[in-house]
Amino acid sequence: MTETYFNINDVILILSIGLSIVLAISQPLYTTKNHLSKYLLAVFFLCIAIFDIGILLIWNEYIPKSEAILTATPYLYTVAALLKGPSLMLYVSSITDDNFRLQRYHWLHLIPAAIIAAVIVYFGIDLNLLRLDTFGLDNPTYRAIDYSLWFIKVVPFAYFAYALWVVWRYQKVVFTQNSSVNLEPIIWLYLLTGAYIASALWSLTLSFLAVMYRLPYGVTDNYINFILLIGIFFYSVALSPKLTAAKTEEKQDQPLNPSEKIASLVAKIMRGIKEEKLYLQPNINVEQFSEKIGLPYRDVSFAINRAFGTNFFEFINSYRVEEAKRYLSDENHLDMSVMEILLESGFNSKSSFQRFFKRLTGESPTEFRKKSLS
Question: Where do transmembrane segments lie in this chain (predicted)?
Fold first, then answer.
């Protein structure tokens, strides 16, 4: 009688499978700004679980396998591998864009999975062949297996790289539309997408090493993926709800109204700055600002970018710094703390205030105050 045997790598896989399934099932219970995001993340976790089950079945020879498992495993393993990338990319898109909705063209992301399934059917690839048990195989079948294994590594890498680009695009948009931005979740999102790119690149490197030098480092993938699984869960629960709201800029069908020249737009913007002091409102965004001065927000963004060479975030905070400098250099406000001054100036974050103030003046607020009053 053969006993089932699990080594430490199998244990990590089993833990990853169990955690992925639990996380996938629990996603609908969480509250998110975009309800679609939690279902996309659930799909991502399910893909990880199915992919890891495939690895376990392929490489653990002690697990009994029926004919159905031998036939089905290549489909489940490869399709799950190819759906990890699109599901993560779409999840990142959904949490960084308030307008995100699934469109018909998104179904095109299923094409790589359909291609690999067709290859498996055509060449009759089963679980044993995926294990590279290729003795006596004809050359076309061997090449089909080899190319398929490379395919399921390259495609996720491309999607993870695209997800990183989505984060970069979001950062640009959110700084254009908002005067106050929570940087912590953005930094974490950069780290996670960057880590998945590094993981996919490492997986490709291991494949090269295995082909060239027969180095058995492939199991390290399991440990890295388990750590990333925990990381993406922590981010989805703790940090993604803190992302600053952003709407992807839509293409304008019509150019700016010819009667609204740049000078006229700037005049209205400066009226909102000088007379209404809208920059003192801590969380004001470009839509709220535009509504108060009676202009379309796209015109405001365009004018600020064209006339001042900056975005809304930088533009508003520069006036907040000037307001803070007025308080800090006035002897009548000596009783005010730096925290009170930054709040009075429209900032709602000490770190953001310190960063902007130092960048624009070359000094910390405390240094500026001491120098101004000496």
Answer: 12-30, 39-59, 74-93, 105-125, 147-168, 188-211, 223-241
CB 56 within 8 A of CB 7: no
Find the Cα–Cα–Cα–Cα dihedral 119, 121, 126, 132, rounded to 10°.
-20
Per DSSP, which regions of 154-203 are E strands? none
> Residue 198: its pLDDT value, please?
92
Contact (CB, 8 A) for 33 and 98:
yes
CA-wise closest residue to 34 among 104, 103, 95, 106: 95
pLDDT tens digit sequence for 226-282: 888 899 988 888 888 888 877 665 544 444 554 457 888 899 999 999 999 999 998
Q: Which two tokens stand for residue 357?
A: 């103030």
Please state, in angstroms and rounded to a whole number, the distance separating the CA atoms of residues 330 and 326: 6
Angstrom distance (rounded) from CA 166 to CA 87: 13
Average pLDDT (152-156) is: 94
For the stretch 165-198, pLDDT in tens is: 999 999 988 888 888 888 889 999 999 999 999 9
20 or 242, greater pLDDT? 20
Q: At what angle do helices 365-373 and 312-328 cross, to 10 degrees?
A: 40
178 DSSP β-pair partners: 285
pTM for the predicted model, two decimal places: 0.81
3-state secondary structure 320-350: HHHHHHHHHCCHHHCCCCHHHHHHHCCCCCH
The two three-digit tokens of residue 242, written as one number: 């803190």
- What's the one-letter identity of residue 272? G
Domains defined along the chain, listed by start: 8-242 (1.20.1070), 262-373 (1.10.10.60)
